[in-house]
Amino acid sequence: MRKLFIGVGNLHRGDDGVGPFLAQRMAEEGDLALLGVEVTPHSGEGISLMQLWDGAEQVVIVDAMRTGKNLGAIHRFDVLADVLHSGVFRYSSHVFGLAEAVELARKLGKLPKSMIIYGIEGSSWTFGEPFSKVVAKAAERVRDQVLQEFGAVGGKVGGKAAIGVAVKKTAKSKKVAPKKRAATRCVRIVKTKASSV
Question: What whole-number distance in Å separates Cα of residue 97 and Cα of residue 88?
């Protein structure tokens, strides 16, 4: 079964950078690789998104969005149950973006068996700006949810705590022991119907 995690957005456009940031971070951590998940950042252009998820059975996507909810609010869409209206994720330069790609794939019968989209509420889309601290904190919560979507339990992969590797440069190239992450916090995820957004 092909499993795929996609972080959508532009690292150089404020809060829009949260998706690709999370994809790069999770690829470096390696936890998703242990679960057999491909990880990729993506600009959000619709046709290439459809080509990317073609043949995958389980897809999880993270992107920034703006609905008027509080900055950092997390929305979870089950694409098989929720319709994504055009413009929900329209903070990129693409006219045919994530929502449009999902709905076209639905009409063509080309959706994966499972597709979950996490939208993180943003407010700044300025080129050259970093994403906000509130969005960064939301990304931490979404990271844990993404791991759980792919089968990790409570931030654990294969019965062991999800870890990041502490990297040290030394003259003798010593082995570096993994560093355990802080305990995973429970988080309330707001399940949002696209029609009410």
Answer: 10
Q: CB burial class (10 A; 0-12, 13-18, 19+) of residue 195?
A: exposed
Question: What proportion of the chain, given as a percentage, has pLDDT over 70?
Answer: 74
DSSP class of residue 153? B
3-state secondary structure 50-105: HHHHCCCCEEEEEEEECCCCCCCCEEEEECCCCCCCCCCCCCCCCCCCHHHHHHHH
Whose structure tokens read 């906000």? 132
Give the global pTM: 0.78
Residue type, 135: V
Q: What is the pLDDT of residues 126-178, one digit of tens each?
A: 999 988 999 999 999 999 999 999 998 765 565 444 433 222 222 333 333 33
Cα 191 to Cα 89, 94, 195: the distances in Å are 16, 25, 12
What residue ranges define each of the domains in the chain, with the CATH number in brackets? 3-196 (3.40.50.1450)
25-61 pLDDT, tens digit per residue, is 999 999 999 999 999 999 999 999 999 999 999 999 9
Asked if residues 27 and 37 have their Cβ atoms less than 8 Å apart, the reply is no
